[in-house]
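Now for one specimen:
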Amino acid sequence: MSKIRLDIEENKATDQEAYPTLSLPLQKKIEWFKDQKIGIIFHWGLYSLAGIVESWQLSKEDNWARKKPWRKDLETLRKDYWQLNHSFNPVKFDPNDWAKKVKNAGFKYMLFTTKHHDGFNMYDTHFTTYKITNSDCPYAQNSNADIFGSLVKAFNEEGISTGAYYSKADWHSPLYWVPGEAPIGRYASYNPLENPMMWTKYNQFVENQLLELNKNYGDLDILWLDGGWVNAKNHEFLNMHDIVSKLRKINPELLVVDRTIGGEFENYVTPERKIPEKIPMKAWESNIPLAKNWGYVPDDQYKSFEEVLKTIIQIVSLGGNVILGVGPKPDGTLPLEAQEIMIKLGKWLDIYGEGIYQTRPYRVNSINNQWYLTKKDNKIFAFLLPLVNVQSKYILDLNDLNSKASIISCIDIKTGKEIDLKDNKLTIESKEIRGVKLILGSEEKNNE
């Protein structure tokens, strides 16, 4: 999967970084995370109303985001964008409907953009008025005005785990982009070494918001920190040791994902729009939008269901999780194209989910770039990724599994019927993605 946007701060070194010492609760939480396999992330904010690439057009250096500029010049664009809070009114937003659709699609956890880089808060923060619940936003009087709070409640009721996406950068905050100063790109408008008092205030602002997210919305499972240049470049160092220590006093099992930074506060790594060539040493999660963009853009280009499913199987066979991105529309509904993919995914997982959830990679993750394997207890699951729309016979030589135990039986997962094996080979004729379950003897189970 090729990278098609330039908004991601890559740090390949962190992908190969070993775990620091984790507490027992966090070790258990990491294993819990590996069991979930499939999550969903919603990028939603003022940018959906503008119909642009999230809030990236606000950044002067990120010219790639303004190939189709929302306004003719950057000054006008920023002025008009900051005023979108006066128009944002997602009256069709129904958190219970979202939760039901997500559950039916087979997602096990959900992340939501509480605040993107533009600084507009999609929850009821007490540390800025630039938020969905402020009186100058027409949606403020709606019973679901605290968008994040409404979603957490609805998703918890459906048994889906929840987490908060939070940008460490805040282009609306006068403590980050100081009024009257000219920020160059995505960074703070000043050098924190030259204005340490201002940066100390901003650090406290970030700490305050992260604490309220973890105090006011129950025990979140994941805190997903974006804005990888903060704590990495331009001397923009937040005091993560103190911040995370305070968060963990509230919730000892909170997974913190300080993306691309590495170290003890990046509990799992997050390769973006790709399947990593080298499997990270940490737990990992590939982030794949269903469309070209993370947020809602009119006439966006969506992936086919087959492409999405193929990606999921390949990632899970390598031991990773997949989080799929959906950009809700400005009226609060989910795009029909995304819903269609979700419906198909749910139906497929109803049949084949046993070979996806709670699995771990087998010693051989793929054979001939056609069969992809996962393992759970004494079962190996083999998924066939056939040539697109080509009906053909596909053979899996079970000797290629390098199994330490004999195969007791081979079951077609879709039909539940046992498949006859001839010369220790499995043959399937199909043009669809299929899966079989191989039951192994106890020796394999004990030795894995």
User: Anything to note?
Assistant: The chain has a mean pLDDT of 94. Residues 72 and 400 are 60 Å apart (CA to CA). The radius of gyration is 23 Å.
